[in-house]
Specification:
By secondary structure, the chain is mainly α. The protein has one domain. The protein is 72% helix and 0% strand. The chain contains 6 helices and no strands. Helix 2 runs parallel beside helix 4 and helix 5 crosses helix 6. The longest helix is centred in the C-terminal third of the chain and has 34 residues. The radius of gyration is 15 Å and the shape is globular. It starts with a helix and ends with a helix.
Length: 170
């Protein structure tokens, strides 16, 4: 896993750049799709706990330093998603090769439903009561649909990055 950190970091930087430059200006039903939450979820579903936690922390902190969000809140949501997904990934539930084709997208959709709720709850916990200006159900639905569509390709990318690190070690 150690050799996979460099490609994982590069993809995380790319994900944060796409989030900040493209997705943050696009709104679907008034909602921004949070790719910075999907990336650690996908890495976790691929079964790589340490990499999932790493990309969640790095991606969340980098996003929060460039956005008007409480520092670390995006990272905390990413960490929760990464850890939960990695538990499923380690058990083979989100395995792309042996599980049914709909399992990974469904798990992604569940993560997309949970992430905005966790973010809003975390904002209240951080005493930032104005963190959510839009509709929470709309944010949950839009992110769930986007995560459903993007979960398999992102998990394939996560698995390929981890395997690059494995091949480099051999």
């Amino acid at each position: 896993m150690r050799r996979a950190i460099i490609p994982a970091t590069l993809v995380t930087l790319l994900v944060v750049a796409v989030q900040l430059q493209i997705l943050s200006s696009l709104r679907f039903a008034g909602v921004v799709i949070m790719l910075v939450w999907l990336w650690p979820l996908a890495m976790g579903l691929a079964g790589f706990t340490s990499l999932a936690v790493y990309v969640a922390l790095v991606g969340g902190i980098l996003f929060d330093t460039h956005a008007t969000t409480p520092l670390g809140l995006t990272a905390v949501v990413g960490l929760v998603l990464a850890y939960a997904a990695s538990r499923l990934g380690r058990e083979g539930v989100g395995d792309l090769d042996s599980a049914a084709i709909w399992v990974t997208p469904l798990l992604g959709a569940v993560g997309g439903l949970a992430a905005p709720a966790l973010y809003t709850f975390g904002g209240f916990f951080a005493l930032n009561f104005g963190i959510w200006r839009g509709s929470l159900p709309a944010a949950m639905l839009v992110n769930a649909v986007a995560f459903f569509i993007l979960a398999r390709p992102m998990t394939r990318l996560a698995k390929a990055i981890a395997l690059v690190g494995e091949r480099a070690r051999r």
